[in-house]
Specification:
Length: 121
């Protein structure tokens, strides 16, 4: 029985920095806060629930968690595969995103970092 990743449950500040392949311009980081727990340790899932997204894979191996999510919006399909490693009150990792079926197919490789802020509201 695994006890899950070494992470502090509570409110986290999460920063996602987008890196579009073939686009040299650095986009500003997106900041948001989310309540993360040992049962819900994947950042960003709150926003995804509104966008017809399905978590198709989710696993944790020690302090590293990984997931795969698929979203459909009309003809556009978005697949994101993420992996982060927790170290108590911090985490870092990456999310690779593929968008297909829309006017332009795109690939993005995002870096994601998080830091523990305190208890959830």
């Amino acid at each position: 029985c695994s006890s899950g990743p070494n992470m502090k449950e509570g409110k986290w500040e999460i920063a996602t920095e987008m890196g579009m392949k073939g686009v040299p311009v650095k986009m500003p980081a997106m900041l948001y806060t989310q309540c993360l727990t040992k049962k819900d340790f994947i950042p960003g899932t709150e926003q995804q629930t509104q966008n017809n997204c399905t978590m198709t894979e989710q696993k944790s191996d020690g302090d590293t968690v990984s997931w795969r999510m698929e979203c459909k919006d009309g003809a556009t399909e978005t697949t994101s595969e993420g992996m982060i490693t927790y170290s108590g009150v911090l985490f870092s990792g990456k999310i690779d995103i593929t968008i297909s079926g829309g006017p332009v197919a795109m690939n993005a490789s995002n870096t994601i970092t998080g830091k523990y802020l305190g208890p959830c509201d």
